[in-house]
Queue: 3 jobs
Job 1
Amino acid sequence: MAFILVAAATLAPFVVMIATSLAGPAQIYEGGILPSPDLNAAVDNYRAALTEVPLLRYMANGAFVCAVILVLQVTIAAPAGYALAKLPFRGRPLMLAGVVLALMIPMQVPAIPLFLGVASLGLLNTYTSLIAPFVISAFALFLFRQFFLSYPDEVLDAARLDGFGELSIVWRLMVPAAWPAVAAFATISVINHWNDLYWPLVVITDTDMMTPPLGLVAFRATAESSGDVGALMAGGVIVTAPLVVAFLFLQRSLMRGLSASARA
Amino acid sequence: MRADHRARWRPELATAPEIRHRRRLGAALALPAALTLLVLVIGPSLAVLGLSVTDYRLGMPGANWVGAANYAALATDAGLRGSLANTFAFVAVVAPLAVFGGLWVAILVAGAGRARGLAQTVFFLPVTATLVAMATAWEVLLHPSFGMANALLGVLGLPAQRFLSDPNLALWTLAVLAVWKLLGYNVLLFLAGLATIDRTLYEAAALDGAEAGWRRFTLVTWPMLAPVTLFVTVITLIRTFGEFELVVVLTNGGPDGATEMVLFTLYQEAFRYFDIGRASALAAVFLVFVMALSLTQIWIAERRR
């Protein structure tokens, strides 16, 4: 019984968000447990969410920023993870210590000097400022290192005996082998950066550059004064839908990715 | 992190030039990561420690050494002290609820039989949902005049509340929302942990008379889950201490500072008042807290081995 109540409370904001996005001001302000839906009002709400604020632009910004961050994170961290696991270069123990240290540093700490740097380079309100701080992920380094550590040395030695060079081992064996690790990391990275508010709030003030969460914060400020709660909830549904729908379809791989983050 | 025994070098399989080649390739592959790690994470974090002993303000020329003055302000400045006190009260309420609530839900979900998939989905939804959107949904749900929460209180014959604007209530409202936000992830971690417990342990416990319920839990589940519980506790403490979005979206620290917390105050000092020195001192405190927790976890986990 208590379990059902907790489950209901977990779902409540989703239900309220969807129900309110489908209702007109009359039904919303009437009160009651949930406002009753109204087709015309629903159409108005979603149209207002898409036209009163550049919601699609925010989503495109978010998708672009997430994609570039993910590609750069993998491009930088996956080869390094392989080196940390399999190639004993000089400085490797030091770098491993650096990775463990960086794993413990929350983003808000380097954010202050990073903001000073971004501002002094004149990069506020640019995609560069949204992307640059995240191109390196200590978590990705750790994840890829662990992944490559479990790759059998015998296979590598056999490839070497077959005349594979070190570079072609990387290209022809390691890159194809790394996809499960990339998929696991991708889920975490996209969830984090699509939903991040802190850093966009620091570097973005220009409406055209906003990501979905920041755009919603701005939308909320205007919706609050105009009282257009239905449109605001419609905006919330539109922004939340892509990841939630993706989650429903990719539940298994997403959960694998999230529990991989836990093991790290 | 364990010694990488599997990556051990085996010289008998390679000639000296081959080894040199591999070392060079390794360094080349690791270099971009090492440089960006240094420039974007470790360097700036050290810079924060440096800035925290200055009176640097953005837009002012130069900075002066002020020693521990910014740290002293954390103890003397009423606003900063209030923010720290709110944060600790918030953590003290949210963390136990999110950890033990997550464990409780995970055990029930694991035993839910055919409903397990559905139950999982329900509790994981908040993990992927955009928190800013969900926070505005909570705001509608908690609205003093037309929200669902007060409508339900009315049905039960209880008086309506101003959940987010009553200074005595706002912080606890945010605490409930924080538990809502953290629960799904903790359930996921506990479910992963429960799946690793050996079935035969439960069978053995059943032979000893601990077939179900509390005895089975104390005899098998709780001790076997200890490493997971430790990890969940640490990550929950870190995430609770670092709550930011709920405050900035729902209350802006109000009413009257009642929901000001460390990261929100840090954000205000750094990016609204541009008092970089003071903000850096707060960031340093936050960093020490997070690192102390992480190191404690590593230490306990290593000792257990």
Job 2
Amino acid sequence: MKLRTFHAAWVIARRDFVAVIFSKTFLFFLLGPLFPGVVMALAGGIGAQVADAVDNPVIGVAMSAEDSARFERASAALSQPLPGRIPLFRRVAGDDPAAALSDPDKPLVAVLRGSLAEPELIGPPDQLERWRGPVALIAAEARGGLRAPPVPIATRAVRTSSGSQVQARVLTAQAGQFVLFLLTMLLAGMVLSNLVEEKGNKIIEVLAAAIPLDALFLGKLFAMLAVSLVGIAVWAGAVGAVVAVGAGALPSLPAPAVGWAAFLALALVYFAMAYLLLGSLFLSIGSLATTVREVQTLSMPVTMLQVLVFFFASATVAQTGRPLELAAAAFPLSSPFAMVARAAQGPELWPHLVALAWQALWVGLIIRVGAGVFRRSVMKSGPARGKKERRSLFGRFRRRTLVDTRVGLAG
Amino acid sequence: MMKHELGPTAAGGNPVTGPNAAGLAIEARGLVKRFDGFTAVDGVDLEVPAGAIFGVLGPNGAGKTTTLRMLLGIIDPDEGLRRTLGHERPHEIAHRIGYLPEERGLYPAMKAFEAIAFLGALRGLPLGEARSRARALLDEHGLGYAAERQIRQLSKGLNQGKLEETIRRLAAAGTTVLFSTHVIAHAERLCERIAIIARGKVPFTGPVSEARDRLPQQVRLELARADGRWRAALPPDAGREGAFWHFSLPPGGVEPLLRALIEREAGILSLSIERPGLHDAFVAIAGEAAAKALAEEKER
């Protein structure tokens, strides 16, 4: 693209940004996410419950082969009448519970050692609290059912375990994905309403006469991204203030694997990528539509697609490195969501560099295609015609004559 | 695709940034534009002399906007050729062309001077310089008082008067003004040359006087007598309205008619010969339907 295009895009972006930020309605816009915030909190709670219910936490058993087998049988017997409440047991080799607890490949929430007569549960305090009762129940079952005398479970706390960390980071990953999804859906639609309004009052026509349409597309897209980032900064500031004032009263998310600073930075970049991808699609749609009704009709499939993409990415949480997660990371629209979840769960940074390069490639491609659609469609609003021709919104796609405005008489 | 040729450019064939050798600021040959099978513009030819105020006159849906968009380079024609200020890709010289659609196309909440500065900035001016030049321009045109007003606060009536004044000033300074309108009075008042456009075609292009000359002059005759031998001397298209008779000026002029009326004692009280207006010419050239559509739009 030429320098003229970038200069014009900058002028458009600057105007749109200033006009939105200094408008009265921007205040209402900033207040808007309070409602999704409540929804998010509720959904987060439901998600955590679901995660609790469907996870299969594993407790390592460092006992004799016979005692281990009895624990496993008892666990299997009780898991039927008490689904979701009984942990799985897996025999672990060696006599180093700390090493078993920190093995990231075989995540354990706690380790049971000693013997069936004198079991000792070792793990992080929250896991001990959670599993002490069920383990006592299973131990009693392993010793002959509820008629046997209760078994006292000795406990020893360690700082953390790989299993509890994995479980906890799944929550962070889910929260990260959900916030990213909400922000993208909330903010990407702004470009659409902005464009339709300008098409309606012929501003687009004046702009199109003065600058390349690619510049108009880029300017509008990046202006709204900048507005979104301002909104996010304000909301983050508000959340930070609430945390600072009443930190103890708020539930805290477990630290992501890459650390909070890197996680937040990555989340911001992934938001920008998701926004640019979705915003390009919305702008292209806006250029095809001439009325609000057409916008609604055309944007619905994209919105539904984005919801599906979010569900797809959500399903891959806690499946780091598996084919499904890799597919979600590779598919451009789900990639930012899959990768933000990965940032919560895995400490490596290089996959993010690869993913960002991949996403940037797709952003460039979709912006280019989107700008092309925009260029061909935005000035197509011709005169009022007959009813038959006006209703043929979808007929337009079949019969459209594509003209590249960059090609002059020589083309 | 039809074979069309544009005239030579001033530089001998290559696109240049000024009028061509024939002194034309805008040339179009056989422009065609279709949208989804609908032909919005169907073989339009135009020649706009440099420095002229040129009107494109036609009802909504006639193809005015699409033609203008092609001449500006916003869209490309499906067929035909165009050259604006000597350039076959007009959008590349967009910074030299100002464009204002009838609906204004300006941000309603923007202050007047900011709106002008914004358009300057889009054409490459640094914003600071664009702002100071915008204020100077408003002062120069006697609109300095409106600089801080929002576009939505400016009345359309104020714009209209100032617009016509500005158009005349610009043309006097050598700027070519292409003026698209569906109001015949505007075209008649402002333009030296016009193109009448209807259903995507241009049935007439040329000086306003030539359009009016397409129709014979109209005779308005007042007679003292209601009937008599003189009736046979009137042309066949003569119609009566009270004491007045209206008919087209006969090809032989008015003198033979006058002689016949005097000889047959018609009692001539008054006689006037009127030149047809642009409205009559428009009806004759574009048809009744186009003229009706034009009138309806004016009322709206």
Job 3
Amino acid sequence: MSDKKKLYQERLNRYVTAMDVGKPDRVPIRLNLSEFLAKYAGYTLQEIYYQMDKNIESSNKFIQDFDVDTVPGPPSLWMGGIHDATGAKYLKFAGRELDKDKQFQFLESDYMKAEDYDDFIENPTKWILTTLLPRLHTEFKDPYRAHLSLIKGAAGMVMNQGMLAEAGKRWAEEYGIFPPFSGMSKAPFDTLGDVLRGLHGIMMDMHLCPDKLLAALDVLVDHNIYYGMATAAGDTTLPLFMPLHRGSYPFLNPEQWDKFYWPTLKKVIEGLWKHGKRTLFYAEGDWTPYLEKIAELPDKSIVFHVDMTDMKKAKEILGGRFCLSGNVPNTLLTYGTPEEVSDYCKKLIDEVACDGGFIMDAGGVVQWDAKVENVRAMIETTLEYGVY
Amino acid sequence: MANQIDGLKDALVGLDMNKVLDKVKAGLDAGVDPMDMVKDLQAGMVEIGDRFARGEYFLSELIMSGEIMKQAMALLEPKLAGVDQEYKGNIVIGTVQGDIHDLGKNIVAMLLKGAGYNVIDLGVDVPAEKFIDAVKENQAPLLAMSVLLTGCQDPMRDIIKAVRDAGLDVKVLIGGNYVDEKVKEYCGADYFGTTADDGVKVAKEVFGA
């Protein structure tokens, strides 16, 4: 076995052991770095949004320089060219609508209207293709351009995915590193609330048309399970990435959370777990009031990621049954000193990681403003102090 | 005459959109002073803000009440032309350049309006000059800036520096999910807020009302 293969296996074992709530040789380090990687490698954001080779190169530089167990693929998931091909109205990219070093922007709106619910429930895919896509894209003004733009966009997507797959192989072979997750899905409430109805729309719906909202959420359960397994290409070693948004405190009142947010999310997670697929419950914001509910999930079916949730309570309520991760504050990585970051990591290792089932990571996705010396302090502290 | 609008405040606090709009329409038909209705609605918004602060209401209730308020004001505003409204003071608010998140900003603005302040809302992606011009033009004693992403906090620092350099006598409040004491210090702001009702608390301190 080559050294890199051995390293790959060691790291993977460490990561999987922690997710199974076991105690590996040391605390694994996963860093969910996004635009930070571009800055570290010396690229502008325009370059990584528009050139897949540079997007991929950004990751190479970081994984050459740092000993981490796993980092997600390249910094940008959203390639500008694909969205330009279809004329996406809901996104703005660096170098086009924005300065070359500005983070991409998502323009939220109620792209789906309250009166669309019946058609959506009847056949969501058909509704998306015939109604939503034309609303979201300038190239859908006439059928001729619409067809061409879909071909261009799809071809671009396939090329990008091919490059990513190649890069993934190279990262494994040359650097002994693997991605922290495979596949992605969402809470049905977020599928509707993020891009379709928007926050404002879905908040109104809970008051004004709750039955339709509930029916639409139900329709999404099977779809979101399927989407997760399909985007993971069936892999069940790594967890699925599930960024969670509208369920954080204090968006919904407790009755709304119990009625609208949790039941279908629980079904998606349980459905994935039946396929052997674990979910990285990426709980953005504060989820402290809901920990007891989350504890209803089958043992080990999630990795509960802590952003601003009370870590002590998370450990108390979920510890021992679920792996925990995260919680190094993003503001600390940006404004703190290496000593402060190191102290914070030590505290996490002492108080949370002590009996296994913990993965070191930042609270939220690390943007380009994090200081390199603070990211270094996080890694070095874990490598030295996180040994069991 | 006032009995047309009895319960207007409670209807808003209870988030009953139809009842609020019916009462406003009935009030206007009966010739009730629109300012009286605005005051009732504002009192309702203050109560809603208090409920949020006590943990009884959540963002969903704030957003719903904002929508009801918007629709009620659409009925009332044409009747308010030429009426001098009394305000506790002027507050300039906006989301800083580079950031387009406006949920927090809109809720804070709504609660400030409800509490009786004149809120000049500059929207999102607002550059320094726009903030400075608005503070000067309105002689606003309080400037409130919203930001979500830590990566967009640098413009906030630059804007605050520009405001200080321009010699403006204005207190600066910054707000957002990832804002804390550290960010406040870094940006040179006077106050920071992380929850919906922090804005009103700070305004009370700045305006003494």
